[in-house]
Structures are given as structure tokens and as C-alpha cells.
Records
---
Amino acid sequence: MKEPKAKMSAAAKNEAAWAWAFIAPTMLGLIILNFYPAVNTVYQSFCKTGDFGKGNTFVGLANYSAALSAGETWHSLWNTIKYAIIEVPFGVVIALILAVFLNKKLKGTSAFRTIFFLPMVCAPAAVAMVWKWLYNQQFGLLNNIFHTNIAWISDPKLAWISIGVIGVWSVIGYNMVLFISGLQEIPGDYYEAAAIDGATGIRQFLHITVPLLSPTTFFIVQTRLIGALTVFDLMFMVMDKTNVALQNTQSIVYLFYTYAFTNGNKGYGATLVVILVAFIMIVTVIMQRAEKKFVFYN
């Protein structure tokens, strides 16, 4: 026979009540701001927005059929992947090199850390305005310095690289701070033992730093890859709607914004979001499996 459950004392009930009171705001915030919008987005992907943006008409898989057969969907997804190919590897490698140098006890390291982290705290609108000025074909600083006449953000073949450079510049500081945190967790005894054995600085970096820093590297790569695949504000503020290179740079989130908020077709826009989420989940699963082979936990 099951023993009867012991009744909660008044003090235990009071503690439980206070516990629920403390976590209730967070739970309500998650439900209202995260769970409900996510469920509603999936529901809207099966609907067509009514006339004048009112009401939803259930259309089944019609939106998915239209989106998956549309060339602009795959083109925008490929633009997003191209951006990620530039931002993630270069942002990680450059940040790692800077972190290794700034982790040493040198004069002015705190100032340099602050300088490199500043892009992360700058408003995206300010970043876009400054880089648009730098890239300006007629009056831009880059063309004036190099005495060129390059259409950095107007040339369809070059614009996506220029956007990627801005992305790399924006995330270096964030990645660097995480790498510095990971470097400080590596015991100094490993480097001392390697130095006694005659290992050079490069050998120490390749055989000690890189393997022991792999958990941090994996975390940065995974989070930045998701961030790159959902990029929107950078492209929206740098690329004007009249820009001839827009079709070669717009991300899939930019395409979602166009359909959902400019054209008023929220059902089709929600479908694009669901497709992107499915793609990100596939990428995440692949990375989680790769973690077992490439990540070393000491």
C-alpha cells in the first residue's frame, strides 16, 4: 500500500507561495512574449491574411507550396548563407587571435579590450550610417583613401561581401570577450610544461590553446551561426529599397519583413519564418553531432 503523502507545513506552503510569486513574472513573460507568438506564427503560416489585413483564411499547405517553389525564397536563403560564411569564420578567427594577444599582461590591454568591444554597444542605426558613409562611391572614405571608384554596396557582385565585412566588424568584440574568458580557464601549468619540453608559442597555441578552447569556440560558432542566419537590421539599414544590389544581399528575414509588413501578407511571411526555423534546427542538429568529434572537454 502506498503511504499517504505528508501534509505541507504552513512554513513550506509559505515558501512555495513565495517561490511561485517570484517565478510568475518570468513565466508570464515567456508565455506572452515567446511561446504564444511562436505558436501563433506557425498557425498563421497555414492561413492567408484577409482583405485589408483583417481575419485569417485557412489555406493548408498553400503558403508552403508557394514559398518552397518560389525562386526568391531560395535566393534569399542563399544570400543568408553567404553572409554567414563571411561573418562566422572570420569573426571567430580574428577574435581568437586578438583574445590571445589581449590575454597577456601588457600595458593598455584593458583599453584595447574596451575599444574592440565598442561596436557591440553601438546602435545598429549608427553603425549603418557610418558604414554607408565609408562605402559611399562618390564621397566615401574608402574610395578617397585608396583612390578608387568602387560601388561597395551597389555592385551586386560585391555588396554581399561588403555587408559581411560590417558583420565581422560588429561581432569581433563580443567573440573576443568570450574567448578571453575561456583562455583564463586554461591552467598555466600546461604552458609551463610545454615550454620546458621546448614547444614554441605556435605549437602551444595549436596543441594546448585550440583543443582546450574548443568548448568556447563551439559555443561561439553555434550562437553566431544562428545570429547570422537571422540577420535583418544590418541589411535593412545599409541597403536601400532602390539599391540594385538588394536582391543579391537581402536575407530571408528581410524577405519575411517585406511580405509580412510591407505587402501585408502575414501568412506567407510566417511561412518564411517557419522554413528558416526548420533550416536552423537542421544546422543545429548537425553541429550537435559534430560537437562529439571536435570538442575537447578537459
Note: Residues 206 and 212 are 10 Å apart (CA to CA).
---
Amino acid sequence: MRYISTRGQAPALNFEDVLLAGLATDGGLYVPENLPRFTQEEIASWAGLPYHELAFRVMRPFVTGSIPDADFKKILEETYGVFSHNAVAPLRQLNGNEWVLELFHGPTLAFKDFALQLLGRLLDYVLEKRGERVVIVGATSGDTGSAAIEGCKHCENVDIFILHPHNRVSEVQRRQMTTLFGENIHNIAIEGNFDDCQEMVKASFADQSFLKGTRLVAVNSINWARIMAQIVYYFHAALQLGGPARSVSFSVPTGNFGDIFAGYLARNMGLPINQLIVATNRNDILHRFMSGNHYVKETLHATLSPSMDIMVSSNFERLLFDLHGRNGAAIAALMDSFRQGGGFSVEQERWTEARKLFDSLAVDDAQTCETIAEVYEQTGEVLDPHTAIGVKAARECRRSLDIPMVILGTAHPVKFPDAVEKAGVGRALELPVHLADLLERDERCTVLPNDLKAVQAFVSQHGNRGKPL
């Protein structure tokens, strides 16, 4: 399997090199040169498989030539063996044909665990084989940071620096990052928003001279391995609901477009998916594109669903690449136009093509709270605000009541007590046993200005397990 850049000017790489590269040298994102496709019979034969075995079958083509089957199977069994539910990603029924796919049974109670528990183990495997050491600099709007630290904290050959927007993540999200100590773990609160953090990460990849020879590795969803891991639970959900003999639709809370792009890939790999709904909050750049063909950057607002407080959706470039016939030069020009002018529209036929599969809805805080209260009254289930946005979007945008609708349950509600409290849900939420004392643990975090050079100087000074790089 070879991987190419969405901007067409970077060399094609194998999986091992893509894992370590993250962003392509031309500023683009890596995608498979040719996507594997499974027959309906092949997909049907996977029904009833344990999650790690299904993951092996779905992901095996992506790592062929880089990781032997026996090693990859062992990595996957270890990855999903740490999840607290035997089904790993259980489905919970809300009503007759509406389901929540619970993706929060991993160590940090968020869907990011599916990819980042795997990413940490893959890095360990590849770096040990190569005898290399790397630096991770990642940006988080809430959940990626803790999942990345949890997944990589035991990696012997990794130093990890996670940037989050100061005072713009929930207390539980922050503490899940800042209470994990280790010589190779560094939390940085940036006096800015998530887009500022993400821009610093991209700039650092573009010019890595501050590392003095060590290379950067991405844990954000620009890293192909994260997208790859997320494809699996679309197959898992569909198989539980009668797929591939019947189609399934999905509503996906998303800000960075990575999670829903994985669903788009699952469909292109042969899984019958009828509809993908982009569910987002007030920061609605994706909704404005899907509903009106306007991808325009506007002011970023803080909301009750902070993991989607994103105005520049990095992974959207991967979809644009396909919509433009995989023309790297066209994408490079489009991204340059966005960087200079703050927005773009695409040709009508390309937008119409996207609308055949995608619908979207932007949901404000008041509607989010209303949905949390409504679902609790109907079912006794408490939703986190991101999942609630997914439910609202599913109910507003659904094309067919006959086709099962799966909402991706992206996080445990205990991570967002403010939203649950504002929704008027009286039920007390308790942290799982392994996090029961989280609010009493000591924290370690460095607050830095919204300044790239200050961040890079900190990374250079504190890398290599506390020794300057």
C-alpha cells in the first residue's frame, strides 16, 4: 500500500513512513493511492467477529508490506483489550430505528481512544524496529490530548507535547491531560483558541529546524493511522444492524471532519451507507459548505461542545481531493486561496456530488441542552453535548425512517457536567472507578502565550525526557 499527498508534490510513502510523517512535505495530507474494496459476501462473513478481529480484516490492506499479520493482530488485541466493555463499541437503542454507537468505553472516555491507543502501539513497534526517537506535538480541542497521552505515555522513544486552548476545555478534559505525569509528557495551555494551537502544529511540521535533528510525529487526525482506525467502527455498527444486506445511515458530531471522513471511506470500501450527516455546533463552517457551498472562516465561539470549537477543518481537504478527481494541483490552489482570502466555493457539480451522500446541521447550545433533556426524559439516557448534537441532526436531517440511523456517541457525559447541568438533568454522573479521584489529583501544565517561537523554544528545551534537544 502506497500513500500520496492531497497536494500532489510530496513523494509517495509506505505505511510505516506515513505513520511517522503525519503532514506531507508539500503541506498536504496523506491518503491511500488506491482504496481497498470488499465484496458484500466478504463483509457479511465478518458478522460476529470480536472487535479486534474485525479491525484486523478492515485495516490489514493499509499496513500490508509494513507490519506482518501476526504482529498486527497482537497489536490490535492489546489495543482493544483495555476497553471496559466487552463489545468495545456497543450499540444502545434510543427508539425503534435510532441507535447510539457508544465510543467512550476506552481509558479516556472518548472516541479518540479507538485511534490513539492503536497509534501509540504502532509508534512503539515502528520506532523500536528503526531505533529512532521522535517528538509528538499535538493540538487538542478537548479529547485528543488525553487520549494521545494515554496511548503514548509508555512509549520509550517518544516525547509528547500537547497544546490546548487555555480555559477552553472542560475541567475533566483538562485534568485527564494534566494529571498524567512522566518525563516524556508535557501539557501546554495556549492563550488562544484551538485553531491557534492547530496552526502552530502545522507550522512546526513545515519547519522542524527547532528540533535540531529529531523528527515530529502527528497525533492529530492529519495522521492517516487515526483515520484508518476509525473506519472499523462503521463496519462494526452496520454488521450489528443487518449490514451489508441493508444500508445504514450515520450522524457524526464533527469539527475537524476526521471521524465522518472515516465513514465516507467505509462506504467507498464497500459498506452500504445511505447517508452521512455532519452534526456540528455554532462553529458551523462544515454546515455552511454542505448546505450552501460556502467554506468561509468566521469568528470562533466557545460552546458547551468544546471538542467541536474548530473553524478550520483539517481533514476536509481529504474529501475535497476526491471531489476534484484527486487533482493535487487543484487542491493546492484551493488551499492557497483559503489561506489568503479566508474562504472558497467549489464548482456546482462537485458540491452536488458531495450532497448525494452528506447532509448537515448546526446546533446551538440551547438546542443541545433541549436535546439532552428530551432524550433523558424519553429513555433515561444522559448524552454528552456532542452526542446530543448528533441526535438533533439525525432527527432533523434523516432521509428515511426505514433505514437504521446510528449516532456516534463520541464521549461520556461525565466529561461535560456543565452541559448536563444546564440541560436540567437531575441524575448525578459519576466518574468510572479508574478516574474516581481525578478532581483531587495534582496537575502539571505550562501556560504559554499564543506565540509559535515561545512554544518551539519550550519543546526544544524540554524534549528528550527533560534534556534539551
Note: The two ends are 34 Å apart (CA to CA).
---
Amino acid sequence: MKIIDTMHNSNLMNLDLNLLRVFALVMRERSLTRAARRLSVGQPAVSHALARLRSELGDALFVRSGRRMEPTEWAKSFYAEIAPALERIDASLMSSRAFDPGSTDRTFRIGMSDDLQMAFLPQFLAAFTERMPNARLVVQQTNYTTAAEMLDRRDVSLVVGYLDTLPAAAKTRTISRVSYRMIMDSRNAEVTTLADYCAGKHALVTFAGDLIGYVDETLQQRGVARDIRLSLSNFAVVPYALRGTGYLVTIPQYLAAVLANETGLVMAQLPFESPEFDVSMAWSPTVDSDPGERIIRDLIVDTVGGFRSQR
């Protein structure tokens, strides 16, 4: 028997849908403070809503564990049953609502890896502002290790980048296939051969915080290895890390081209056949038919997907 079947019918009929939305948000955030921030209300309002729901449902719903709000087993089961229904309601309301891109003041939330932000955000913002001049945009940094959680928690409605494991229900689209280039300070020695490349000092950008990257798999197949001396957690620091250090960095071609053009760094082809990776976007099925979200996705395809890697 489903858990909601065990509740008295009058309780179900009288439940305020807004209370269920608060409950669902606290389930995803595990924090009253973050839930309140997302709802643009004070934390006492969230606490009051949960207190009402506890009274209606006869369960504690959450217990505090340090700074986190951990759900009871009953709350987990209840959430698993009501979450799809809430999503369908939200999707129906959104699709039936008249939408005017020129006048909407909605706030859109997307996740984008920092390399894509550096390379494509100016073009995307220009197109976004032209299409929806009164709308607001929140861009959060994401990567393949955080994208799935951000979608699950509804922190964002769309993620863009190199994507790995995603929620099973997520909609996905591959928008570009990209190769790598190396970039270096102009004072570096010229790197023209595979031996030169492997002998150089390398910096690696990795979200995993390790000292091995995607390119190293290609080198291993050739029976060689490069000397990685530095691991960085984001692409924004690359120009500063390379300045006068003698390091080489191998990064996606679209970002290497931007850095070479704007910072004076030198971009060069790899002295071996570059591996390639897919840049994709993924979004929640609840916004698949949303007209505003469709515009966002189209703009992503036009800007990020418009890049074609040169071998």
C-alpha cells in the first residue's frame, strides 16, 4: 500500500500545496536557510510551514544533524511519491501560462562549467538580453562531478559542459565536439614534437583534484607520459599560473583561442592527435515544454554549439 493511502482522506484534501512545496525544497536543500533563500522568505516562515505540515501528517519529517536537516524514513518515502506529482503540476502551470519574451521578468538558473563561461558567456548574455531584455539570469559554476546533484536539487534547470553521470530522467543534447590545444607563455621553448611535450612541465586543470587527466589516457596508449607538476581546480587561474613559469597547459580549443587572443599566451596544436570530448547540455524534464527554457536552450545551441573544433 502506498504511503499516501495510509493518510486520512480529509488530511489530503485539506493540505496546502504550498506546504508541500516547502517540504520538497527542504528535502532537496537539507537546509532551512537555503530553502528560505530560494523561496525569498525568512527562515521563520519555512519553520512555520514545516510545523504545520508536521501537525497535518503526524510525522517529524526532519531532524537536525549538525547544520543539515535529515529527513525521517517516512519523509523520504512520502517525498518519493509526491515529487513527481509536484513536478507535473509545475510543468502544467508553466506550459499553460502565456509567455512574452519581450516583457517577462522571470529569473532563469543555469549551470555552466567555468571554461565555457570564459569562452562563451559574453555572446550568450548578449543574445539573452536581446531576446528577453527584462529577464534575470543566475549562472552557477558546475562540472561533471556536480551537474547531476545540481539538477536533482533544482539549483538549476539546465547544465552545460562535459557531462558524465546524470539523473535518469534528464533530457540531454550533445551540442559540440571539441579537441584540445596547448597554451603557454610566449617565453616558453617551442614545443614541436611528442618528446618535447612529454619533457615539458605541465599544469593540469582537474575538478577531481588529482594529477591525471583525459589527455593522459591518449599518451598512455602511445606508451609515454607527461610530467604534471601542478593541479588547478578551475580554468580562470590558467593565465596567472602560466605567466613566466614555463608550464604548459592542455585545455579545450575554444578556451585556448580566447586566452591566446586576450592574454598574450601562445596557443599551439598538440604534437599528436588530440582526443575529443562532447560538450552537452542536460535539463529537467519538468521544463522541457517551458517556452522560456526552450529559448535558453536555443541560445546555448546557437552560441556554444556554434563552435566547431579544428583538428
Note: The two ends are 58 Å apart (CA to CA).
---
Amino acid sequence: MSDPKTSVLPMGHTDHDTVVHGGDGPAHPGDATTLFWRFFGWSMLFALVAFFINAVLTISYDWPGIATVLSGGGMLAVVQVGIYLLAIAGGWLLTTRSRMNTLRHDAKTISDFNLALVRACFFVVLFVGIGDAIISALRVEGVLDAVVGEDLTRNLGRSQFRGPYVHVPLAIIAVIVSRFVRTLGFHWLTLMIVAAELLIVITRFIFSYEQAFMGDLVRFWYAALFLFASAYTLLEEGHVRVDIFYAGMRNRAKGRVNTLGTLLLGIVLCWTIIIIGFAGQSAVIYGSVANFEVSQSGFGLYLKYFMAAFLGVFAVTMLVQFTSYLMESIADWRDEPGTRLDRAEAATH
């Protein structure tokens, strides 16, 4: 006898269409409303990629930007508009080619991708932080010359060298490692923050020794932990809600509230950060990253530009997760089977 909590869609559907029945209504794969919201979500994610491509073309290669398409921008401006049109077309193509996918299926696909992205980011800051701290420690103690030679030591003292030739290779290695270590990196990062802070306490109060890079490392990792974990916290419904009515609402009412909140607040906030952060050569995110900006402390970590990039990573990962959350919320609004809570309970049995 089949489990009464499960409901399988008609023959011809794939395994992902087998869902835990958490609502009274059926799933609606292929109907107009489902297609519209799936198209909206995927198009926005493709448009995010198009935005970054255009930002690089406009800021780094002096392309005119889409705003000049009707005011003398020429063919380059038309091409930039075309990039956005391709993004929208990509969203439509993906939606129509997988017409029978449900909102919850796409939400899980997007969320799984985002978790992989966040995991890679955590390992990047872990590896880059350790690597830069080692270089800074050797440099401040005056032994870096003996290890790598005078010329390389001089180059490692320039952020324009240390960034591309040390940080970037370490970041690539970290991304590769994240594909094999199937755990979220903030567990490792939390442990390393505690270890780094403990080292400061021991060296300061026992040996009366402390260097600028030690405090920089703690701040670097803590900022990453705080900003990168936000998307995962949203997935797990871990963000604090200050409400009077929400907790007592039915699932459909919660879906309406979450849908409106995601559209009017969450997505808007993320796009605001991204647009302002990449508004030009002196923008708070792009300007810092492009110039490999460092702090004023002479022997601190050369990672200030990384911390500016954290804002961009936060906005991107939250936007991706909000897209997943939007699809889930609309499915809740429509009382479709397989709520987040029901799937979590089923996974424990």
C-alpha cells in the first residue's frame, strides 16, 4: 500500500514530479500561472548574468551602455541591449523546454545551485585568508626574502601582483575543492574564526605579540561568515521575523505574505545593492575590486577589495535565493503539494 502522504503525478512525468502532499490543491505544471512565474524567475537570473557582462563592457572597455541606445550609442549600445534580450529569451526557452516542471521543482534546482555557489565562496575566503596570512606573517618578520627571493618579495608587497598571482589561483583551487567536499563551508569557517581569535588572545596576553594581519584575518572571515550565510539562513527559514499575525496564518496566507515581501522588499533590495555597487569605475564594489584596494596598515592583509566584493556576493546569493523563495511562496499561495516543512519532515523518516 502506498504512503498516503505521497502523490505521484500522471505517467510520463519524471521523478522530480513525485512530491510530498503538503496541501489540499494539486500541482499545476504547465499552466499559464506556473509558466509565467517560472519564466519571471529564470529570466531575472539570466538578466543578472547579462547585467554583469554589460557592467564589465561599459566600465572596463568603455562601451556606451544601454541608456545610450536612443541617444547616439551606436551599434555597441544595440549589442548591449541584445545581451539583455538574449537573457530574456534564455529564460523563456528554459521555461518552455521544461514545461511540466513545477514551481517547487525549479525552486529546489535554483536553491541547490545557490548552495553550491555559497559553499565555493566559503572555501575561497578560507584558502585565500590562510594564504595571505602566511605571506603577511613571513613579510612582517622579515623572512620572506629567504623563502621566495628578493624580487618576488617586492612583488608580493604590491596588491596588483598579489591579487592576480596569489589570490586568484587560491580561489580556483578552493572552488575545485568545494566540488568534492559536500558540506557548507561556514562550518569550517566558524572553526577557523574561533582558532584565529584564540591565537590572538594567546599571543597578546602570553607573549605580548600581535600584528595587524591577525586582526584583519578575523574580520575578513567574520564578514564572510555573516554575509555568505544569509542565503542559507533564508533557505532554512532562520531569519528572525518580528510579527504579530504571521505565525498564526494558514499556509496559503503565509504564501501571499512571502510573495509580496519577496517581490517588494527582498528582490528590490538585492538589485539596489548590485546596481549601486557596479554603477561605475569608482563604485563601492567595482572600484575596489578592479583596483585591488588594500587597507592602510602596512603589514595587514591585502584583502580589503575582497571584503568589498562580499557585498556583491551577498546581493547575488540573496537574489538567487529570493528567486527560489518566490517560487516556493507562490506554490504555497496556490496550496500546491510539497511545502518546505513537509519535505523536511519526510527527509527525516
Note: The chain is about 70% helix and 0% strand.
